[in-house]
Specification:
Number of helices: 3
Structural class: alpha+beta
CATH architecture: Roll
Shape: elongated
Order of helices and strands: EEEEHHH
Helix content: 25-40%
Mean pLDDT: 94
CATH superfamily: Ribosomal protein L28/L24
CATH topology: Ribosomal Protein L24e, Chain: T
Strand order of the largest sheet: 1-2
CATH class: Mainly Beta
Strand content: 25-35%
Radius of gyration: 17 Å
Largest sheet: 2 strands, antiparallel
Number of domains: 1
Low-confidence stretches: none
C-alpha cells in the first residue's frame, strides 16, 4: 500500500540522520497516515480513507467530508477521492430537484 495521503498528497520524504560526529546516514520521513471512516450525510454511508492526521483536522474544520470535498479543488486528490467528490455532487444535485 502506498505511503501517500489520499487528500493532501503528502508522501515519504528523505533526509539524513546526523550524529554528534556529523556523520550522515540516509533515512526516510514517513507521513502520519491513519485509516479513518467518515460518515457522509449526502450518501448516507461511511467512507473509509487512508489519510494524514493533517487532512483529518482539515476535514473536521470544514464541517465533514461532504462539505470539504465540495469546496476543495481536486488537483492533489487520489482517484478514489475524486470519484467520491463527483458522486457527492451528483447526489446533492438529485436531492435539490
Amino acid at each position: 500500500m502506498a505511503k501517500r495521503c489520499a487528500i493532501t498528497g503528502k508522501g515519504v520524504q528523505s533526509g539524513n540522520n546526523v550524529s554528534h560526529a556529523n556523520n550522515k546516514t540516509r533515512r526516510r520521513f514517513l507521513p502520519n497516515l491513519q485509516e479513518v471512516s467518515f460518515m457522509s450525510e449526502t450518501l448516507g454511508r461511511a467512507i473509509r480513507l487512508r489519510i494524514s492526521t493533517n487532512a483529518i483536522r482539515t476535514i473536521e474544520h470544514n464541517g465533514g467530508i461532504d462539505s470539504f470535498l465540495i469546496n476543495a479543488k481536486a488537483d492533489k486528490f487520489d482517484t478514489k477521492v475524486a470519484r467520491l467528490k463527483k458522486l457527492i455532487i451528483k447526489h446533492q444535485a438529485e436531492a435539490a430537484k
